[in-house]
Amino acid sequence: MSGQEWVEGFPGAVTVCDTEGRILEMNAKSLEVFAADGGAGLIGTNVLDCHPEPSRSKLKKMMDERRANVYTIQKKGKKKLIYQAPWYKDTIYAGFVELSLEIPWDLPHFNRDKED
Which residues of 2-13 are buried (b: 16+ CB within 10 A; e: fewer)? Predict the structure, then answer.
């Protein structure tokens, strides 16, 4: 993946697409997570084709509006944080990135605004 060694060893799935939704890159974890859907064969395909309605329309709108979408899911007994956001190259909109991270069921929350 673009010679970025850190992203290959990163424990979360990183999937990158261009402005039209064409999948450009997937790190090792992303290939593993999406193996049943085609794994590396997904590179070059459109991410919108991987989503049924109404998810497809929601993702298309997010891409058109260039806005982030953040949520958690439960899948196969694991809790995950999904973070989808636009990325930019030299300040020009270049597409979308999806991060999928396994998180603990009881995730600690620290209020750094709170005075001790």
Answer: eeeeebeebebb
Render pLDDT for 64-89 as a digit per residue (tens, 0 to 9).
999 999 999 999 899 999 999 999 99
Q: Are strands 13-17 and 78-89 parallel, antiparallel or unpaired?
A: unpaired
Query: CB-based contacts of 64: which residues, under 8 Å, 6+ apart?
Result: none
The vertex-12 CA angle with 54 and 29, nearest 5°, equals 90
- Residues 86-109: tens digit of each pLDDT: 999 999 999 999 999 999 999 999
Calpha distance 15→30 (Å, rounded): 6
- The CATH number of the domain where 94 resides is what? 3.30.450.20
The whole-model pTM stands at 0.88
Q: Is residue 52 part of a domain?
A: yes
Provide the number of structural domains found in the chain.
Answer: 1
Is residue 98 one of the residues assigned to a domain? yes
